[in-house]
Design a protein that fits this description.
802 residues; alpha+beta; Immunoglobulin-like; 5 domains; 5-stranded antiparallel β-sheet; 19 helices; 35% helix; globular; repeat; phospholipid binding; Rho_GTPase_activation_prot
Length: 802
């Protein structure tokens, strides 16, 4: 049994942001922090006060996190980026909203005294004595304090207050992980205040000290327990008056917290086996549980259910059979060929998820070079005469502006070149398309041709394939390459228009250049010769794509694992040292790194011979490094053992916070089952004779911060988590248990009066009865797991009354 938390985040847009640049505009982006730790960064949207991002993320976290904050920033090329404002959502707030937070939130001003983070380790004792008792406070250490100084650290000290008396620790210079080990005593007097206040401060020589957070402890509680020890989370100063909202603009967000208790695999086997039996039997099955699930699932959660079902059947090697069953169900209720797969049915949603999971690398291979070319050329492209702006084009020669007709012709030439290049790349990609995708499209093509065999429907099987491959996969990726990880930044207005026109042209090709599609926008006519040629190319491509042999299908059934050996790759800077100590004449050198299921390797270029750096089985932790350690941001450390079992550390620098967290996430996922994973680590480096983070002199000293192996980002190429998918499906089925019971009663009544024909074997209501029984058993398993063992987290954080 394991408890898991995840945050589904969609950063939609901002409005009415203040202007931070002298041009009267801003260049906004968002940073997402969980408990003060930067996790995500959106792309920058240039020169706007109403940016649209539309970026989606899912973050997996330990259940103990406290808050998620969204900072809207203004990017500056020459100075430090400006903070516009923030929105903060606590874990308790999100937990109280089953459907999550959706809507607009006012940005609030960022107050340095409220920007607290980290924890402090205290031990509190009440000592009996004569004439009165004494309260003893041991201030031991702190971790992950907010850096307040330019060097990326703080100079922390602690101030302890009780009953009008104040005592202070010494100052620890340049550390966010200080250790004090100092003791303070106070006389407990009758009628005195009942709280002990422990405040952390950053000492400054010239300016005022900066507040780092505080803990308020109930003395009565300590008196009752006699002793209390643990890590206490630092809190902001709530005594300050709240600042006004509304003048910094707003942010539209969709944030949903999901807490799941995942049981052992054996608990889910009856549910998995029941669903797999239905899929194997197909439309010949008696109960058609998949059809019942589709019928009773609301539109708003159909995409989520489709994704969960798809991943479950992928893990069972039945993805093709599952999708084939959905194809048959939809074809059985479709009479008009031109409406086939045009709705948001379970089949359509499942195929969308399937292509993203199974075909994303293929999409990148085909589309990547064309998208890169569009971004690099930055040509002005417009086909709609009502939108042509000649002034945006510049001069074609030294003395003359281009006419509108010349702009339109040049735009058509550019789009014809891009469309032709895309169709040629697609035609060459048959072999590159994953076998499971080819086999699924073959089944789709076959089923549609069987349903619409007439000559007048000759193009319908082709359009069925293109409705998914082009209209729901390639075209959305062309219009929003950032959301499909094809580019790191959003396109500017000019590039966006080019991509939109290219996507429209691809849609016309996918619709087989029907008169209806041409009539919608007559100004697309200049592209018709290339569109017609593209239709012929696309039909030839699909014919070859679905021509998958029996032997290839048998091989596919034996191995349907979608997890490619390559997990992640890209350029990183590896730390090189000339001399003793990690900072002695050191530098970072750029290499191309590859993370596979066996090792982390590097090479000078992507095509050159790779050298293994770390075997995955030897990884003990993958964590961030303090900025002050190397004077550089976005540095991570991979702690591992060499072949002799000796501990080693590799320092790698990434180009941005997203790249850093993606690499950390990938490394954590592939090493999650390793033996000997560390519970703590040093976020600094061992410089000279001490650690730069906590100043301890023992190199083998236990780390001063807890590791974050459970903090990961969800990616399209993640390994399948069979138990989690089964749990999510169970949770959905449980939410509609009443509807399923009503459906079961309806089927039972129909059988009694003979209105529902019973198939061979089980009756339809028997399959539903079996499903309801499985749900009851899982409910009982969850109830029995509630008093489970205490958390296995290496450190506990105490919740306090403030």
């Amino acid at each position: 049994m394991a408890k898991r938390s995840s945050l589904s985040i969609r950063i939609v847009e901002g409005k009415n942001l203040p202007a931070k640049d002298i041009t009267g505009s801003s260049d906004p982006y968002c940073i997402v922090k969980v408990d003060g730790e930067p996790i995500l960064r959106t792309a920058t949207v240039w020169k706007t006060l109403c940016p649209f991002w539309g970026e989606e993320y899912q973050v997996h976290l330990p259940p103990t996190f406290h808050a998620v904050a969204f900072y809207v920033m203004d990017e500056d090329a020459l100075s430090r980026d400006d903070v516009i404002g923030k929105v903060c959502l606590t874990r308790d707030t999100l937990a109280s909203l089953p459907k999550g937070f959706t809507g607009w939130a006012h940005l609030t001003e960022v107050d340095r005294d409220e920007e607290v983070q980290g924890e402090i380790h205290l031990r509190l004792e009440v000592l009996p004595g004569t004439p009165g008792c004494r309260l003893r406070c041991f201030v031991l250490e702190a971790r992950d304090l907010a850096p307040k100084d330019r060097n990326g650290a703080s100079d922390p000290f602690v101030r302890v207050r009780y009953n009008g008396r104040t005592q202070e620790t010494s100052v620890v210079k340049k550390s966010c992980y200080p250790r004090w080990n100092e003791t303070f005593e106070f006389e407990l007097e009758e009628g005195a205040t009942d709280v002990l206040c422990v405040e952390a401060w950053d000492w400054d020589l010239v300016s005022r000290n900066d507040f780092l957070g505080k803990v308020v402890v109930s003395v009565q509680r300590v008196r009752a327990a006699q002793q209390e020890e643990g890590w206490f989370r630092l809190q902001p100063d709530q005594s300050k008056s709240q600042r006004a909202e509304g003048n910094l603009g707003s942010l539209q967000l969709e944030v949903r917290l999901r807490d799941e208790t995942v049981l052992s695999s054996g608990c889910y086997q009856p549910l998995v086996q029941l669903l797999c039996q239905e899929v194997k039997l197909g439309t010949q099955g008696p109960g058609q549980l998949i059809a019942v699930i589709e019928e009773t699932t609301s539109t708003e959660c159909r995409q989520e259910v489709a994704t969960n079902l798809l991943k479950l059947f992928l893990g069972q090697g039945l993805a093709k059979e599952f999708l084939d069953l959905l194809f048959q169900l939809e074809l059985g209720r479709t009479n008009e060929a031109n409406t086939l797969f045009r709705s948001n049915s379970l089949a359509s949603k499942s195929m969308e998820s399937f292509l993203k999971v199974a075909g994303m690398r293929y999409l990148h291979g085909v589309l990547g070079p064309i998208i890169d070319r569009v971004f690099e050329e930055k040509k002005y492209v417009e086909l709609d005469p009502s939108k042509v702006e000649v002034k945006d084009v510049g001069c074609s020669g030294l003395h003359r502006q281009q006419s509108e007709a010349e702009v339109l012709e040049q735009s058509a030439q550019t789009l014809r070149a891009h469309l032709g290049a895309l169709m040629s790349a697609l035609c060459r990609s048959v072999r590159a398309c994953p076998a499971v995708v080819r086999a699924t499209f073959r089944q789709l093509f076959k089923r549609v041709r069987e349903r619409f065999p007439d000559a007048q429907h000759e193009n319908v099987p082709f359009i069925a394939v293109t409705s998914f491959l082009c209209l729901r996969f390639f075209s959305p990726a062309i219009m929003a390459p950032k959301l499909f990880h094809l580019r790191e930044r959003h396109a500017d207005a000019r590039t966006s228009r080019t991509l939109l026109l290219l996507a429209k042209a691809v849609q016309n090709v996918a619709n087989m250049d029907t008169p209806v599609s041409r009539a919608k926008e007559a100004w697309m006519e200049p592209l018709q010769p290339t569109v017609r040629q593209g239709v012929a190319q696309l039909k030839d491509f699909i014919t070859k794509l679905v021509d998958i042999g029996e032997k290839e299908e048998l091989d596919l059934q034996r191995s349907l694992s979608l997890q490619a050996p390559l997990v992640k790759e890209g350029p990183l800077f590896i730390h090189r040292t000339k001399g003793k100590g990690p900072l002695a004449s050191s530098s970072f050198k750029k290499f191309h790194f590859s993370l596979t299921t066996d090792a982390l390797s590097f090479a000078k270029t992507p095509s050159s011979k790779k050298s293994a750096l770390i075997k995955l089985a030897n990884i003990r932790a993958a964590e961030k490094v303090e900025e002050k350690s190397f004077g550089s941001s976005h540095v991570m450390q991979v702690i591992y053992t060499d072949d002799m079992g000796r501990p080693q550390t590799a320092y790698l620098q990434c180009k941005c916070v997203n790249e850093l967290n993606q690499w950390l996430s990938a490394l954590r996922k592939v090493s999650i089952n390793n033996a000997g994973l560390l519970a703590s680590y040093h976020p600094g480096v061992f410089r000279g004779d001490r650690w730069s983070c906590c100043h301890q002199k023992d190199r083998t000293d236990q780390g001063c911060d807890k590791t974050r192996s459970r903090v990961t980002l969800q990616e399209w190429n993640d390994p399948l988590d069979h138990d989690l998918e089964a749990q999510l499906i169970y949770r959905h089925l449980l939410s509609m248990e009443a509807t399923l019971r009503e459906k079961h009663r309806e089927l039972s009544r129909g059988t009694e009066v003979g209105t529902v024909p019973a198939g061979p074997g089980e009756a339809p209501e028997d399959a539903l009865a079996a499903l309801l029984g499985v749900l009851q058993d899982l409910q009982a398993s969850h109830r029995s797991s509630l008093p489970g063992p205490p958390s296995s987290e290496p450190h506990c954080t105490l919740e306090l009354q403030t």
